[in-house]
Fold:
Amino acid sequence: MDWEFAKLGETQSLGAAAAWKAIRGGDARPILLLRDCVHAEKDNAKIDAFQDDERIVLATRWFHLVRVDRDVVNPSHPLHALFDGESPPHMALISSDGAKRIDMRLMPTSGALWTNMLAMLKRDYEKPADAALDDWRALLSKFDVLDAKRAKRMGEKHRATNPKKLADLESEIDAIDEAKAEMEAKGAKVLGAPRIGAHGTPVIFVHPKDMGGVLVELMETPTEAD
Structure:
C-alpha cells in the first residue's frame, strides 16, 4: 500500500473544506485517510495485515492513500479539522467530492475496511468495482500457478547447465505471453509486449480503459535466489 505522507506549508489550522482540498491536491480519487497514533507499532502490524488481503491491496489503486502524523489531534495542526471532536477517527474514507465521509474510530479489521472501501467505490465510480476486483484476483491466481511451476523449475535449474537455465527463462516468458493472450481474448488491451521488470521477472501492462481508469501492472512474483 503506497501511502502519501501529508506535507503542508500551512502553519495555521485550516477549515474542514480547506483541509480536505489540501490533502486531495490534484488527485481526483476518493481518499483513504490514516492518522498515526501513540500505538504506532500495533498500528503498523494491522496495516501489514491489510497488505495480506488481496482485495484491499487491489482496491487501493482506486483510492488516494494519505497518512498524517499523530499531532493532527492538536487544535493548532493545519489538518486538525479532519480529526476534530472528542473521539477522532483512526481512519476515514472521504469521497472524491468531499461530500461523503466514513469514519472508523478504531483501526478496523480487514473485513470492516473492505466493506467500507467497497461502499465508497460504489458511490464514486460508475462501474461496479467488485466485479473488476474478482477478475483481477482470478488472473493473479493464475500467476500463482505460474509461480509454483517456476519454483519447481528453479529446483531443476541448480542441477542444470547454462543452456538449461536459458531454456527455463524462455519457458517463463512463454507463460507470461500466454497470460497476455488470454487477457486480450477477454477484451483487455495489454500495452506492449511483456518485458523484464525491475525485479527480474516478466511484467505486462493493462490499459486503464479496461480496468476502471487505472493503469495496471501485472508482475510474476520474484523467486528468492538461494
Notes: The chain has two domains: 4-124, 129-219.
